[in-house]
Amino acid sequence: MAGWDVIVIGSGAAGLAAARHARIQGAEVLVVNKGLVGRTGATITSGGGISVSGEALARLGFAGADPGDRVQDFFEDIVRSGYFLCDQTLVAAIAEGVEEDLADLISLGVKPKVSRRAPGHSSGRGVLVPGPELQKGMTAAALASGVKFREDFVSAELLQSDAGVSGIIGLDRRTGDVEAIEASAVVIATGGTTSNWALRTAPEELVGEGHAMALHGGAELIDMEMLQFLPCCAIAPEMWRGIQIPWILGPQSGVRAWLLNRYGERFLGRWDAQNMELATRDVVAAASAAEVLAGRGSPNGGVYLSWAHLPRDILDQMPGWSKSFSDDWRYQGFDVAPLIDRIRAGHAIEVAPAAHFSLGGIRADADGATAAAGLFACGEAAGGVHGGNRLSGNAGAQILVQGRRAGRAAARHARRVGSIRPEVNWRGARERIEAPLLRNDGVAPAELQRRLAAISEAALAPIRDAQRLTDALDEIRAIREDALPRLAARSHDRSHNRDWADALACNASVSVVEAALLGALARESSLGAHQRSDGVAASTLDHGLCRLVEGQTRHRSEPVQFPFLSQETR
Amino acid sequence: MEIRLRLGRSGDPGITSYQLPAPAEAGLSGDWQGASVSTALQVLQRDVDPSLAYALSCRRGLCNVCAMRIDGDVRTACTTPMRDGILVEPARDSIQIRDMLVELSLVRKARVPSKEHPHAR
Fold it and tell me: How far apart are CA A415 and CA A186, in angstroms?
């Protein structure tokens, strides 16, 4: 064997679906993961919604499904809730395709439950598979299919031949070796870029290496300014930062807790007087951020969520209403009893919008193909599906459908191109990857990570303006020139060197944050997750696309296409 | 705020005691009692011992990569609040890789070791 047919980077549900379906097509498949397979990544933290049309659920034999809810209705809900910024071919692929993946999931022994409540959907549509269960099922299925794995391997660059992508180059954190691994096709399934924000719901590792590799490998990034925030996440104490408990104890469960600013005003009245705290999440996030910007926030930079007007014992019912809480107030791994006591005692809880999901990402078609030959992308790493806002459960559908289709397409590509062409960039890449380890003195990677998170947090918050975006872009470009070339690990051990891995993460972060800033600057009007306080009325609806030209990230606009549902029917 | 670590470096069974920086200096919102053991390790690696090895992913007690022996019991460090003088050890010595890192792979049998890989250069 002259190398792998397909390498998949990332082992959440999208990556493992891609790997397994490529393997079923007969490909030799290697899954490469930065951490431990089946444990790291965002899938495990998912609430577990998988949106499916009622008619598909009825065909699959789910009791209580609504057969009148057609695939077309599901499609239209996604496009409308995304403010028509969605790539409709991607939406159609998901709305139509997820039935096959749900049937597949059931055949693997996963037992989805019908979801009664699906906020924002026109029907009670979809099923629930808790994140850890989905991850477990997908890991077992990938193993059984004969996929092979590399763990603790940080992918940093794509191996290039004169005919396209021919593998990956990265760091084995265990051995400390920088290695090239050859393959005929590479699938990027590295998840979103939310770890670049200080306050986030997502796990530690989602910095966007896949996005940076794709950009440097010749692919485009789409609508990178579109970042979904989850409103009402805890900001203090430190241990609960970014955890969505207040949201679940409030609006998410229909408990009508009030959002108040420091003057005690229910500020959502200025945004959506009818729905108030039950408005869509992009509205609640933007409204909360606006209060902080106007100087009406809470001490830790958020707003107050208050249950004080409700009966003191209303939360006693919560373990019965929500499966997220046990009778003794365990939520996920946390003991939240102290929080419940505070609420019962009449205290409000400080909350803020936390970076939750990357709506933008690598531009790929419905088969995951990117502009770079041999490079595919799927799952949260791939952008353009959800447009300007995402409804709950739609990411679950996205990762399964896109994973399957990208895996199959990568296997086909590998068969077509046959053996691998000689690489042309291994030496330069190895030098770039090893540089922070070998450098004796310079910028500590963790320090730069803090700076980068502060930039995202300030300029790429739910509400943006040209001044802050321009300042941030200047700072990012200065970092690219001055700080990245001076990154230095403070320990020179090769094995499990956190500074070294952090330095590689910084390289990726700078690329994705720069793309998001360029997109946010160019989109001068407010749309869904992207709100501009200095916004102007939009004349056309455009995608923002970033690609690398002579080493510089360049942004261009391209009109959105409406092949199935025209904007006028809005 | 003191944290005590049994790192087991070069077979040394000793316990190393560290004084954590003040909460504001460490960038915390609130005090150390409201922070997790994972945050303490993060701050230690960043500000005190750059070579410290530990794992952290989901920060909500689901993925278990941060399982450690804390004051005698194996728990997820990300959901365990700090206390003064807390003792942190590897979850189990027999699976220790380095410091608080332990072997928790779920796919070990299907893993391609780097040295056996035909294309490792």
Answer: 13
